Amino acid sequence: MTKPKVAVAIGQSNYDRMFSKQAWQQLEDVSTIVHHEGDEPANREELIDLLPGALACITSWGVAQLDTEVIAAADSLELISHMGSSVKRFVSDSVWDRGIRVTSAGITLARDVAETTLGLMIVGRKRIWPLGRHVAAGGWRDSPVWEQWDARELTRSTIGIVGASNVGRHVIELLAPFQTTVLVADPYLTDKEMVSLGVERVDLHELATRADIVSLHCPENEHTRHMLNAEVLGSMKDGAVLINTA
């Protein structure tokens, strides 16, 4: 039985970082792998050369958009497996028109981003950055500057989550031990989900005025672009922390 052809377009400089030896072996066991020869992710012309005859394509950040001409060259393509999260930048309408299936690592990566967000919340609430710069410059606790950066605990803080996405929900889960009050601004969050997550659903303006930390986890689109405008930012508490890992 002939193995299906799988094109790997991520660029060979990313191989060690994105594939384990076990993963390569598992892929080789079930497919014939065709490698993009360049170190960097494939550009448009390289995709056109790489994809003919391939049943599946593995992509990552930096791969060129699979536009109409690329998809036309990919005559056998049935699956795109993206090693990043969002696929909106490089998946064109031609992909959907052909009925090509698309998967991503979004759910897996969400946990990692959520952990980073939690770390930023703790560091931001404790004022680690300005206090660290102050100490590195020779200052210490007896300096008046120290009082300008009043450190606070994450525990029992009010946290505003903008977008109950995969990442946003993981952040809410990680916050559970800290006894926080979690506010969520998300028009798609249902009453049932609100109760299940143990959060309070509010609009963006109320979230901004009440939260000690505002954390963004919504996609960029025509509905969210410029949503955090001067009015919203101006309504935030003095000393509040704004985190954007979206």
TrEMBL record:
<dbReference type="GO" id="GO:0030267">
    <property type="term" value="F:glyoxylate reductase (NADPH) activity"/>
</dbReference>
<dbReference type="GO" id="GO:0016618">
    <property type="term" value="F:hydroxypyruvate reductase [NAD(P)H] activity"/>
</dbReference>
<protein>
    <recommendedName>
        <fullName>D-isomer specific 2-hydroxyacid dehydrogenase NAD-binding domain-containing protein</fullName>
    </recommendedName>
</protein>
<keyword id="KW-0520">NAD</keyword>
<dbReference type="InterPro" id="IPR006140">
    <property type="entry name" value="D-isomer_DH_NAD-bd"/>
</dbReference>
<dbReference type="GO" id="GO:0005829">
    <property type="term" value="C:cytosol"/>
</dbReference>
<dbReference type="GO" id="GO:0051287">
    <property type="term" value="F:NAD binding"/>
</dbReference>
<feature type="domain" description="D-isomer specific 2-hydroxyacid dehydrogenase NAD-binding">
    <location>
        <begin position="119"/>
        <end position="246"/>
    </location>
</feature>
<dbReference type="InterPro" id="IPR050223">
    <property type="entry name" value="D-isomer_2-hydroxyacid_DH"/>
</dbReference>
<keyword id="KW-0560">Oxidoreductase</keyword>
<dbReference type="Pfam" id="PF02826">
    <property type="entry name" value="2-Hacid_dh_C"/>
</dbReference>
<dbReference type="InterPro" id="IPR036291">
    <property type="entry name" value="NAD(P)-bd_dom_sf"/>
</dbReference>
